[in-house]
Amino acid sequence: MTAPDLIRTVAEPGHGPAHAAPPTSVRRPAKTPLTGGQKKALRLARTLVWPAIVVAILVTQIPFLVTIYYSFQNWNLMRPGSRGFAGFDNYVTVFTGGAFMQSLSATVVITGSSIVLSVLFGLGIALLLNRKFFGQGLARTLVITPFLMMPAAAALIFKWSMLDANVGMVNWGLSTLGVDPVQWNTDFPALTVIMVLTWQYTPFMMLILLAGLQSQSKETLEAASVDGAGPIRSFLHMTLPHLRQYIELAVLLGGIMLLQVFDPIAIMTRGTGGTKTLSYLLYERAFVGLEIGEAAAYGVITVLLTIIVASVALRLLFKIFSNEGAKP
Amino acid sequence: MKRFEMTKSYSMKKRLVLSAVAFSSVGVLLAGCSGAGGGAQQADGPVTLTLATVNNPQMKDMEELKGAFEDSHPDITVDFVAMEENDLRDAVTKDVATQGGQYDIVTVGSYEVPIWGQNDWLVDLGPLAEADPAYNVDDLLPPVRAALTVDDSLFAVPFYGESSFLMYNKDMFAAAGLTMPTNPTWDEVAGFARTLKTDDVAGICLRGKPGWGELFAPLTTVVQTFGGSWFDEGWNAEVNSPEFAEAVQFYTDLVKDAGEADPVSTGFTECLNLFSQGNAAMWYDATSAAGPLESETSAVAGKVGYVHAPVKETKESGWLWAWNLAIPNTSKSQDAAWEFVSWATSTEYIDLVGTTLGWERVPPGSRTSTYENENYLAAAEAFAPITKDIMLAVNPTQPGVNPQPWVGIQYVTVPEFQDLGNQVSQDIADVFAGRDTVKNVLDKGQELAQQAGDAQK
């Protein structure tokens, strides 16, 4: 699924009531007998849908079913002789091992703080870029660059050039202020990962929020200032409510992408000090532990959790969206 | 009403989107797990061998020189698939474990050789090697050969090997009026490190990056020379024993007091960087570091002294590692594969590297005769003799004070060890940062180790 698809799918309901034509009704009001021609057309339509459904089921469900099968297997790659049915043993290991809850909280902390920080910074930069000035286009392009960088490359740059304890630019900058060199990965591993992620995702948030700012009508703002609202008041009472749905969209998309974060952890902290997120834990179980069954069990649980969290979050968000749209 | 319908049709779409997102992530994982098949070859006629290898300089030299082999064996072509160390481990393990048969020759670390051998995944090369007098199997360095042998079966032959030693910056020692003994003890080294430590220069660089092959390579040798071990002779875990704890306490204290900054970021490469720029007075690591340290890009070339690994209770404390060539049982061209393997690990190949690429590029640590070769000794006089002494002195069957039920020094040759070492080393990162104590960490490690030990009983 590509990002534009998602944006379209997610954005649709929010904008729907505001300007779209009423959606075509899914239900027929009453059963009216169909003519032969209509029946034929319907049958053809249904037949034409089938290949797409079959492909959709194959593509989306088979890997998951195989994962579920593996999760009930006792299978360590290095012990070929001992493979067999394990019952719920792998799930018991997941829930009693202790690693899962730690990893869940690490995921929440890292994802949550990175999203909040990048939305805040993104909002600030979007407000600045929304003004007319010489070289605006160039500034916008420059600001977007971190998001276009490969995550592994970004993590390597931070590891070697920015946060290195001996030659890193950040420590050099701090030393000019008289601060002792900081051991980033050793003493503040979670903060290190959050810094990299915030740096990478701020431009993404900025893009969405900038689009929101540019869609705000100048007349409304002018009217507000004629009525005596200062810049702070019109930001808090006019711009921020207008931006609300854009912020929600940014948070949702950012959350989906950041949940899968792997590179900075693998390259910089190696899962130490509260940075072992679910995706890194899964990698460790599968490729360091070589426990395919256990890793599959983690995968299944992660998928279930993601579905629960995402559907609750989505429902919540779209309720807000719909209310916003319904406002006169 | 309209709103209701829309929500409903949306919620279906939403579910689809969600499942697509969620399941595709699982799909990626599974795709990674399934082994790729193929690679079938005819036993007669022209043969193409696929060789999986690690992208180290020595292996690249082998690829460069493979033409010489193909010239003398016109029926055989060799394809190199070079990967980064972790990728190689993943790819080859998957292929061999699932009987994929993609590779005819694999490059295997000495940790995996005994495990894979016991799983019947590798061809026993012993009879082939002994049947070929020109190969001179007795010339292989005895400790390396011992590490690759299980129940008298030689499952791989070494391409190059290494041990560990202590490197020190002679200028810094001279300036401080200190003398390094040839066989230093850890207490002496800790004293030197604390004396030589300044704001800009680390007294000693020791790996702190989590991973069984990073932190636990040097740390396990320290544990052993302090009298500790991962397991006793009956596979009972000994991770929270007083000796193990003392060693970890010593190591972490030394790094905190006189070691490099940001230890959790520091592995082999980072230490090499630090030491070769003259920012560390000592460095305890692989003997293979000497090559880059004496090269033109190093700021300390010619100024480095090399001595035996520091000890406490044992006489020697160097580790033993080798990159080896092995033939998976699934290969369909085992005879041709042996032709290549025996060529690449022969004295003839070592001479070929020396005469065409230069003697300093010879793969070290595999054969005794390498260290009797005048040309090599002249090119590597700073570190070759001591490397040979150490490699012959280490004892992989009993590196520590007490006997152990496996062959290997800085690792335990059981499948569970890479996971165990990885998890304990991640917890030790908390000790470096002061978030946890050695005792807590090792008590946790003891439980994990006992699980691994129980699997061997």
Order of helices and strands of chain A: HHEEHHHHHHHHHHHH
Average of pLDDT of chain A: 81
Helix percent band of chain A:
over 70%
Protein structure class of chain B: alpha+beta
How many strands appear in the DSSP assignment of chain A? 2
- Largest interface, counted with CB-CB under 8 A? A-B, 66 and 58 residues
**What's the Cα radius of gyration of chain A?**
25 Å
Helix content of chain B: 40-55%
Largest sheet of chain B: 5 strands, mixed
- How would a textbook summarize the main sheet of chain A? 2 strands, antiparallel
Named CATH topology of the domain at 89-212 and 242-326 in chain A:
MetI-like fold
Q: What is the CATH architecture assignment of the domain at 89-212 and 242-326 in chain A?
A: Orthogonal Bundle
Q: Give the amount of beta strand of chain B, in percent.
A: 5-15%
User: What is the average of the pLDDT values of chain B?
Assistant: 85
Protein name (chain A): Sugar ABC transporter permease
Region (Disordered) (chain A): 11-33
Organism (chain A): Cryobacterium gelidum
Keywords (chain A): Cell membrane, Membrane, Transmembrane, Transmembrane helix, Transport
Write the layout of secondary structure elements.
The complex is a heterodimer of chains A (328) and B (457).
Chain A: H1 3-19, H2 36-71, E1 73-74, E2 84-85, H3 89-96, H4 99-129, H5 136-148, H6 151-162, H7 169-176, H8 184-187, H9 189-214, H10 218-226, H11 231-258, H12 263-269, H13 278-288, H14 292-326
Antiparallel strand pairs in A: 1-2
Chain B: H1 2-33, E1 47-54, H2 57-72, E2 76-83, H3 85-97, E3 105-109, H4 112-118, H5 126-130, H6 142-147, E4 149-150, E5 153-154, E6 157-162, E7 164-169, H7 170-175, H8 186-196, H9 216-225, H10 242-258, H11 268-276, E8 282-286, H12 290-293, E9 304-308, E10 321-326, H13 334-344, H14 347-356, H15 374-379, H16 384-393, H17 417-433, H18 438-454
Parallel strand pairs in B: 1-2, 1-3
Antiparallel strand pairs in B: 3-10, 4-5, 6-10, 7-8, 7-9
